[in-house]
Amino acid sequence: MSSRMDPERASARRSKRGSSSSVRNSMSRSNNYVGNYLNKSILVALDEDEQHEDEPSSQYSDFTLGENVSSEDNYFGRLRNMSGKFVNSFVVQAIMTCIIIGNAILLGVLTLDVVRSNPGLMNALEWLDIAILISFTVEFGFQFFYLGPVFIRQTWLVFDFVVIVFSWIFVGSSASVLRAFRIFRVFSLASKWTSMQKLFTAVGSSLPKMGVVASLLLLLFYAFSVLCTVLYSPLYDEGYLDYDYFGRLDLTFITLFQMLTTDTWLVIVRQVMDARPYSYILFFFWVSLTAIIIINLIIAIICESLIQLKDEATEAEAEDASIAFRAQVPVEALIRQQQDITSVQVEMELAINALMLRLPGGTSAATQSTKGTARA
Questions:
Q1: What is the rounded distance in angstroms from the CA atom of residue 330 to the CA atom of residue 319?
Q2: Rounded CA gap, 307 and 220, in Å?
Q3: How far does Cα 56 stand from its chain's mean position?
């Protein structure tokens, strides 16, 4: 009976040893994982602190347009920062937006016959237009003084610079064509509205894809122009058409573009059907392919670019929030937390060793575990 119980007791002891050893190993692995995570967090926080210490501070960093203007400890540096704070303030930007809208209205008023027939009123409005141009120049002068040559990295500031330069070139010009280009000053409004900037950016980023669609559309235009010119060029001479829609390749091209815009295209189709009853199949296929599929494809490309910009902005905001959260956690707190985890590790090791001492034959294993704890 005793010989039968000895193997059972031995197996029970081995199972207890194995279970306690597995518990100790799993607990040490989890503690090592937590400790490694805290070590990484502390290193990241220390690196960020060093980066923040190395970066130059800016007195008015909230008003910086993409580049930090170093706040030099002198009068010139403080003056630059004050200039940036002033020109990028909400009040000044709101005033400039109202001036741009007023300039657009003024350029429209200058085209009225009542104004053009009155030389005195026309001259007064021209001087008002020059005064508005001076205000644009002064605003850009403040921006240039604030940023310096770095302004060339800001797309909208470069656009404002080009518009201002060409506006001064066209001042006093007798050519009405050159003076008409003053209306492009209205697009400076895009530099004041963030939503409009996003729309222009989305259209610009979708240009490569739209170029592919435009190439496909051009091939379709050429193929259908040749086909319609060959098939329907005699109809005008035969008296079926009231205009020579398909007499030459360029005329056919214009006619197909008119159909693409769905502008009175059924009138042309019905005149052609008087001579070619089944011609509507070709024209229906053209309108469906271009006016419906191709145009909607271009709209889908622009919408995709807008969604991509939104996703990028969301990721940037999430990254900034993560950096701000990590910056709020002091390094000392992480070190104290690591010390607490280490002390808990030691206490758990001692508790496991005490448990193993209670098991028969667990003295040697507990001694080895105690040595490992001492080394740690």
A1: 19
A2: 29
A3: 26
What's the pLDDT tens digit per position in 31-55?
454 455 445 554 554 455 445 444 4
Digit-coded pLDDT (tens) for 199-224: 777 777 888 888 888 899 999 999 99
Amino acid (1-letter code) at residue 144: F
Residue 27 has pLDDT above 60, yes or no: no
**Contact assessment for residue 363 and residue 13, using Cβ atoms and an 8 Å cutoff:** no
Do residues 373 and 346 lie in contact, with contact meaning Cβ atoms separated by under 8 Å? yes
How far is the C-alpha of 24 from the C-alpha of 356, rounded, in Å?
10
Do the beta carbons of residue 151 and residue 144 sit within 8 Å?
Answer: yes
Q: What per-residue confidence (pLDDT) applies to 73?
A: 52
- For residue 154 the two structure tokens come to 């800001």
Residue 269 and residue 117: Cα distance in Å, rounded? 46
The 10 Å CB-count burial string (b at 16+, else e) for 197-210 is ebbbebeebbeebb
Write out pLDDT tens, residues 303-318.
Answer: 888 888 778 777 777 7
Task: Categorize the per-residue pLDDT at 111 as very low, low, confident or very high, splitting at 50, 70 and 90.
Answer: confident
Is residue 150 within 8 A of residue 67, CB to CB? The reply is: yes
Q: Residue 215 is encoded by which pair of tokens?
A: 């190439």
Burial class (CB in 10 A: 0-12, 13-18, 19+), 9: exposed
> CB within 8 A of 231, min separation 6: which ones?
246, 276, 279, 282
Q: How many CA atoms lie within 13 A of 109 on its CB side?
A: 16
| pTM to 2 decimal places | 0.52
